[in-house]
Amino acid sequence: MGISRNSLACAGAAAMIGSLRVLAADVAAPSTELETITVTAEKRSESEQSVPLSMTTFSAVALQEKQINTFFDYATKVPNLAFAPTGDGVGTARTVSIRGISGDNVTSFYIDDTPLPDSIDPRVLDLDHIEVLRGPQGTLYGARSMGGLVRLVTKEPNLTTSDGSVHAGVSSSARTNQPNWTADGVFNVPIVEDRVALRLSFFSDDEAGYFKRSFCTDPAAAMALTCTPLSTSGITTANNVGALDTYGGAAALTFKVTDTLTITPRIMQQRADYNGFPLADYRSMPGNGFGYPVPSPSPPVPLPSPLYPSSFTQARTFNVPEGGYDSWALYSIALNWKTGFGELVSSTAYFTRKVDETEDESDFVYAGITSNFGGSPQPSSIEEIKDYQRLVEEVRFASDLKGPVQFVVGGFYSDFHGRLPLAAYYPPATAPGFDAALTGGTAEVTPGYPNLIFAQDFHTDIKEPAAFGEVSFQPIDPLKLTAGLRWYQVKDSASGYELGAATGGGPAIVSPPFTTTEHGVNPKFEADYHITPDDMIYVNAAKGFRPGGLVPIVPPGQPGTGTDCVAALQKADPNITIAQTRSFQSDSLWSYELGTKTSWLDHRLTFDAAGFYIKWKNIQQEIFLSCGFQYVANAGAAVSKGGEMELRAKPTEPLEVSLGVGYQNAKITESSAASPQQVGSPVFQVPDWTANGAASYTTQLTSDWKLLSGADYSYVGRSFSGTNDPAEPRLRGSYRLINASFAFSHDKFQVALVGKNLANEVAVLGDNRSIAAEINGRPRLFVNQPRTVGVEFRQSF
Question: Closest by alpha carbon to 783, among 209, 362, 356?
Answer without folding.
Answer: 209
